[in-house]
Amino acid sequence: xxxxxxxxxxxxxxxxxxxxxxxxxxxxxxxxxxxxxxxxxxxxxxxxxxxxxxxxxxxxxxxxxxxxxxxxxxxxxxxxxxxxxxxxxxxxxxxxxxxxxxxxxxxxxxxxxxxxxxxxxxxxxxxxxxxxxxxxxxxxxxxxxxxxxxxxxxxxxxxxxxxxxxxxxxxxxxxxxxxxxxxxxxxxxxxxxxxxxxxxxxxxxxxxxxxxxxxxxxxxxxxxxxxxxxx
Length: 231
Hints:
This protein is mainly α. It contains eight helices and no strands. The protein has a single domain (about 1-30, about 45-215), classed as Up-down Bundle (Fumarate Reductase Cytochrome B subunit), CATH 1.20.950.20. Mean pLDDT is about 85; it is low at about 45-50.
């Protein structure tokens, strides 16, 4: 296993990140320029009823909070480690992150249930949609698993993952920071890269142009009127 990891790790953690992000930028821009209409969730309804609201709203709020936490640990790792120097603050941060991850999972499961139970939604669901759901479910599930069985992630992310990610930004990839990471953490990272890689070909692109007021505005009703035909 060690020998396999020795050969695979440089490819997965030094080369793959650049490949997927290059793919991300090229094809998201190409899709926006050539297929602007598809730059949306293409949802049949958005926050239009309680069933949909309790699926998508928890997922969006949960995933945004989780991503924000990861981004902060990446941008200001020193401040995160300083915050975690007090046990009470460390516990508060860990519990908060875990709670938002669980919220996102509940929302995602609600959205998947809606796909399966609503014939109209199921009819416009593509294989890529199912792939995205599975990857997101694994990403969130593995994140919760890591939080429970490999705790204090906010600290070791700031201490190990942040330097690794910054080495990628500086085009001097250093995977030595990942040497002691458990396999589930490495799978979590690889799955994230896969999500970035397929991003341009999915409905996720609506994130780049989504109007934030959707989260707090009142539900919008859309009515279609047909011109009366002459007898």
